[in-house]
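From: lab user (bench 3)
To: helpdesk
Subject: output format question, protein + adenosine-5'-diphosphate

Hello, I'm new to running complex predictions and I'm not sure whether the block I got back is the full result or only part of it. Here's what I submitted:
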Amino acid sequence: MTYSLELAREKFKDLFELSLDLIYVHDFRGKFLDANEITLEKLGYNREEINNLSFNDLISKDQLTVAFKALTEIRDFGKQITPREYRLKKKNGDFIYIETYGIPLKEDGKIFGIFGIARDITERMIAEQKLKESEEKYRRLVNNITDIIIEEDLNSKILYLSPKIFEILGYQPQELIGSKLYKYIHPKDFPMAVERAKELVNTGKIEALRYRLRHKDGHYVETSAKGTIYKINGKNRYIGVIRDITEQIKATQKLKESEEKYRLISENANDLIAVINQKSKFEYINEKIHIKILGFSKDDFIGKSTSEFIHPDDINNTIKSFKKGFEYGELIDLVRFKDKNGIYHWLEVRGNRFTDQDGEMKILMIARDITEKKEAAQKLKESEEKYRAVVEQANDGIVIIQNDLFKYVNPSFCKMTGYRHEELIDNSYKILVHPEAINEVADRHTRRMVGEDIVKTYDTLLISKNGKRIDVSVNVSVIIYNGKPANLTIFHNITERKKMEGKLKESEEKYRSILENIEEGYFELDLKGNFTFVNEYHSNFLGIPKDKLIGYNYADLVDQKYKKMLFKIFTQVYREEVPSATFDVEVTRYDGVKLIYEGTCNLKLDSNGKKIGFYSLTRDITERKKMEALREKFTEQLKIEVGMKTKELQEIISQQKLYLEQIIKASQFKTEFMGSMSHELRTPLNAIIGFTDLLLESSYGPVNEDQFDFLKDIKSSGEHLLYMIDQILNISRIEAGELNLRFQEINLKSHIAQIKSSIQPMYEKKKLEFEIIGLDTDKSIYADPIRLKEIFYNLLTNAIKFTNKGKITLKILDKEDQWEFQVIDTGIGIMKKNFDLIFKEFKRVESPEVIAVLGSGLGLPITRKLVYMHGGTISFTSEIGKGSTFIFTIPRNIEQKNQELE
Ligand code: ADP
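Helpdesk reply: Thanks, we reran it on our side. This is the complete output you should expect:
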């Protein structure tokens, strides 16, 4: 430390110690030489430490140049021209800001150091720093704001403009600062802007004022401005924000336009357009259409629930649909919607979910009235069904062919062709065309499909599935089917007709050829009597060729006297419509020969029954007529001969009549004779037998052995004779109708018991068995007891007579409406050849066995007659050597039968 310093210190002692400023001394290198207490305090160093420091250790590096400049200044000019500010680093690392001023320290006129005084400006510096930072922040903010920030004084002079002004109006802020903004407002907006400025003055605020500002290039920019009045540094300032709203306006305009457009579309649409909210209530409706279709006005709808208008049957579905629409964003539905008159319309509804600006989900509903369409569809369906039914029921085959393929075939067509429906659909029609016709049909089809005018109705041939030929008449028309041309063909089966036609032709040919070949004449005339047909025979008969005859009139050919007659006949046939009787006509042949024919006249009708002429069958009777004339000549002679013969015959007949009478008489006589004769014979015969008995009993004296034998013979012959006579008597009486039956109830058991006992000696004598079957219980039969006994007796005695060993059986069968009795023996039997014989009177089988047995040959004939008289039947079976069975029946209800017979 030099003197000078001490001196200086001494000099400024008070200042040094008492100063609030930092006071220090340093040399030109910055090395501290001295410092007051405040300096030490502010920097945090002690005296010793500070004396080892240089101020380059304390000030920041960027200030070093400035600091040395100040040192140089002081050294070179002897004084510091301006105070300087430094930032010093304190011992604890903090900073302190100081403002210094230096004075040179001289000794002997020579500057050796600097005496510095520094004020602590740290607080001010920090405040300044903060301000700067804040300003920087706002500046950046302002610069980045899309709006223009403007600051004006109350005289409207522009004090500040944010750089955004360039973007919006094309001016740099500096160009406008100092001028007034209203110069740039659109003249039209100016009065309004002035008006609003007053408001600003009154209230201190301005709310969204819209005006147009002129751009540097002359066009106007839509802006909106708002601002407030502030007090800044004690002065009133207006700070405002100007926003470019061109885009916004454009957007709004566009939105408006678009809204308008859609509103117009909606209002002018032919569909019903409505907006429905989540409560199913109408929020919007395009009125015009609703009025037109439903008769309701907008107000009838808005706020109302859809269900008020929907058909009760459709409500549930509609609710579901809306729910779905809200859930999935889309809906399609078909509902009946009521109009003001209560009539329901079918609406086809399509809906789309959308979210409105309030974030609420709604459904935009577009509905179309399809009532007419639906009704039309219904009608179409009905009509289609009707036509379908007609087509399906039709007897004709109906098909639709498109691109050569069957697209539709009706059942009749399937039936006609034998194919199944699915075998035809989508298959070529060609499989069905008969090979004979295919070329023609295909050609027609192709030409028709390209639009040529081809005949629509013609006959052709089809071939069925099983190869059968089908004659058809077709009717073809071109139609539009599924949007494309197709061929509608109707097939009428004419196979039968063709067959008939064929048959008719054949038959006609046949008859023609018959007509040509018959040996009779045939010709046809028209109503005027002109020949239309003549057969070979008739033309030959007339001697005129057939072709020459055609066109000739019949009247020209017949002789005069027949013309009238024929005319009469034709007229009558025509009028009465019945064939004429046969008539004879005389004609003169070209060679003058007279000919006669016999003919009939018939009406000729066409297929509709219309009279178109006559036909006649003729026969040449010229020869016959000649013969007849000849025959007449002989007739007289014949008559005489016949007369004679007749006389002869009559004589013979009367002779025979006489014989016949005699025969009848003889027959009656025979019966009477037989009856009376038998009667007359019985008396002497009884006498003979009676007297023979007396002789045999030796009543008139003894007889010798020979006499005895003769007498026995006489007796048995007599008895036989008597039997024979009885039989003859019987049969005579029956034949004479003298025998009457006396019916009564008979106890069959006792009746047969009597018979049994009367025949018992006979079968016992021959050692034959006798059995009765079928008579366990009491039975009663209605018959003549005497005659019934006779029947049984005859049959049973025959059985015994013609049986030598074995058994006789009487079988009784108690049947429902008759009795059946069987007499069965094990005897000799009857040969087949004699079956017819045994019921004949006096006939017996001529065999040794039979001859050996006595008999009359009358037993069976009488038996049969008696059975018949009872209303019964008799038959027999027999085998030679084995036996015979005689069967007879007696009806139960003879009485009834007798009555019936009467
Ligand atoms: P008759 O017995 O008196 O000869 P019928 O009229 O009763 O006469 O019988 C006719 C004939 O029929 C007999 O002669 C006999 O040839 C034959 N005939 C009848 N009954 C029998 C019988 N049961 N078996 C075999 N032949 C019979």
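A quick orientation on your result: The two ends are 205 Å apart (CA to CA). Let us know if anything else is unclear.
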